[in-house]
Write a structure and sequence with these properties.
Elements: E1 3-12, E2 17-30, E3 37-41, E4 49-56, E5 59-61, E6 64-67, E7 73-79, E8 85-89, E9 96-101, E10 104-109, E11 113-116, E12 121-126, E13 132-137, E14 152-157
Parallel strand pairs: 4-7, 6-14
Antiparallel strand pairs: 1-2, 2-3, 4-5, 7-12, 8-11, 8-13, 9-10, 9-12, 13-14
């Protein structure tokens, strides 16, 4: 038997937990001998554009990423470096963002800065609304000032 279910999640940080997303999922029949239910995310009906940006010492690869305004987007950020990197941009200021990191989902209104540990991966789902060219930067300072080393890029929304 299948049915839809909405699940509330908590995002726990270093000092506190806060309620975050209500996630729509389809509950499927048990998938293993212990009777654990399987969940499948209900897919979006619109075509989703996707881009991946790798964060490394001391650059974003690619340095230029282009997305279409009004079309749902999936932006994948992967830290391939050996130190913490930041993803800082005004492109998502005031935009509804669904973020997935380390198996945790969070919904937020606006996103300006993320810190991503070495080997970390963050998936951002959002619909870009405002067109323009937006700087992306890393302001981490160890072992060197990443911004001063040239860790900048551009996110273009057309």
């Amino acid at each position: 038997m299948r049915h839809s279910n909405t699940t509330s999640l908590l995002l726990c940080g270093f000092m506190a937990c806060a309620p975050i997303a209500a996630v729509s999922a389809e509950v499927l029949p048990p998938s293993d001998e212990k009777g654990a239910a399987a969940y499948r995310e209900i897919p979006h009906t619109n075509a989703v554009q996707q881009a991946t940006i790798y964060l490394q010492e001391y650059r974003f690869e690619p340095a230029l990423t282009t997305l279409k305004a009004g079309q749902p987007a999936r932006l994948i950020l992967i830290n391939k470096g050996t130190t913490v990197h930041e993803f800082v941009t005004d492109a998502l200021h005031g935009v509804a963002v669904n973020m997935e990191a380390q198996g945790t989902l969070a919904e937020m209104q606006g996103l300006i800065e993320l810190e991503i540990p070495p080997g970390g991966k963050v998936v951002l789902r959002f619909t870009p609304e405002q067109t323009g060219e937006f700087a992306i930067a890393c302001h981490a300072s160890k072992p060197k000032d990443h911004f001063k080393q040239g860790m900048v890029g551009k996110l273009v929304i057309r």
